[in-house]
Amino acid sequence: MDQQDDDAFISSLFYKTSNWLPNTPWLSVDEFNTKISQLYPALTQQLKEGYERLWDYLTMEEFRKMVEELENESHSIQKYPELALDATVRRDSNLSRQETDYLVKRKRFQKTAFARLIGRDPSEIDERDLPVIGIASSGGGYRAMIGLTGYLNAFKQTGVWDCSLYLSGISGSCWAMSLYYNPFIIRADTERLREHLKEKCQVHWANMSNFLHTLTLSPEHTKAMIRGIIQRGQRAHLVDVFGALMGSRLFNNPEMSTGLSSQQKWLENGQEPMPIYCVVRHMVENDQSDVYQWFEFTPYDMGCEELEAWIPTWAFGRRFQENKNMERLPEQSLDIMNGTFGSAFAASLVHFYQEIRSFLPKGALEKMDQVVKQYELSMSNIHPISPSSFPNPFGTEDLQLMDAGMDNNIPFYPLLRQGRDVDIILAVDLSADIQTAPHFKRAESYMKRRGIEGWPKDARWPSDEMLGSCTVFEGQATGDQTRPITLIYFPFILNEAYDSQFDPQTAEFCSTWNFVYKQDQVDKVIGLAEANVNQNIEKIRKVLLEAWQRKKKQRLLLTK
């Protein structure tokens, strides 16, 4: 079996739309192993040889020396300047000083770009009237990672990107963001990102031969791939292994071990929107209710708005006591963080059932649906694979974080944080279950719980018709609320004007569980995303123009 066949088989095990599962009787482990040996006689031998090679490498004296070097480097201030710094917990609801400084620079940068987009002279634009634009991009595995790349490229080409302040992401979108903002690989270039993904997505991240090749390429590659796990020590988790494997495939670069704070490079002059990476903690309050608590990571800080608690991003992973760090450790590596951002397999039993329901035998569905409905709350509180665990800088218990798609697969919430004051949200929905997912319902509940006004009440999928590739939902000013929130929604669905034969909601290669894309498939996904923006640029321009006019009018009225 060659590498392509190996990848195809691995991918088939994860396909949500696999055809062989519904009609195949459940097998015992021994029966399954026998069947695999019969169908893929070379695979068993390949796996055996692969793991033998891995074991031989891990037991080499050279490898042990590299582990010792990593442990020594973890105390090097020259390599990790953050080791010279102590961190304290900031307990307030304000934006960090670094973010407020960034906003000043970004708005100065935006002025000319916004004038160009709406067809006005820059002299007509007052920075105070610029609409605050945030992009919220959903999870969805490689489909989301590749799809967001297309949307970003189109936003750049049309000028929308230079008018945006924030980019929040979940799961697969976080992977695209971490690549785009990486100062050593993509360097904030969407065309370079496209070509990078066309190369990297051809091989499955779980491909053993590829992993071994990358691991043994050079001592620098070995150290980069294992640094995060070595640093995690006894806290190392299945999620961390996933992150290391994913990182070895997507980054394949000694610089993959850099942290999120290195992305400040693209913000120091306000030249790029600020990335916000989202995760959640599952809070089981009692037997009758549970809630997901949102945490955000930016190149500057991490924390939780509801807790009103924040620390520098480079200090995450340190133990804290009485709001001060008790130790100095290097920043968490990007592969460890990407594993946590995209840890959808740490889902609750209910989320697992929702993912596999479509390929269960039809005869079992009705009974299983009844069981899940009856025990939904209890099953929502059980995670067969536990989330990634870190020292909690804000409390005594460990902080268990997971893929934010467990709560809402579109990250609206960080954009609505007090002080960010977002006027317009470009919602990029790359989910698999677009028409049935409760994104809008949960967002509306969150707005009520947090006392946020101005959310568009009609933001939802209509029950009797389809939405197009771009829909505008207008928020309404109520009472003293003078800042309605406008939602520009981009569902990743069939676009007849682009390709009537390509529906990402049904195309098998677009499954959330597919981690191998051919180059033409990458182009197909990116092309659809670009078309969804390009075909609707006038609609976007109109929304931005009206928001600017409204803010300008309000400012002038207040200054009379």
Automatic annotation (TrEMBL):
Belongs to the lysophospholipase family. GO terms for biological process: glycerophospholipid catabolic process. InterPro entries: Acyl_Trfase/lysoPLipase, LysoPLipase_cat_dom. It comes from Rhizopus stolonifer (Rhizopus nigricans). The keyword Lipid metabolism applies. It is an enzyme of class 3 (hydrolase). PROSITE patterns: PLA2C. GO terms for cellular component: cytosol. Its EC number is 3.1.1.5. GO terms for molecular function: phosphatidylcholine lysophospholipase activity; phospholipase A2 activity. Coiled coil: none annotated. The keyword Lipid metabolism applies. Keywords: Hydrolase, Lipid degradation, Lipid metabolism. CDD domains: cPLA2_like. It catalyses: a 1-acyl-sn-glycero-3-phosphocholine + H2O = sn-glycerol 3-phosphocholine + a fatty acid + H(+). This is Lysophospholipase.
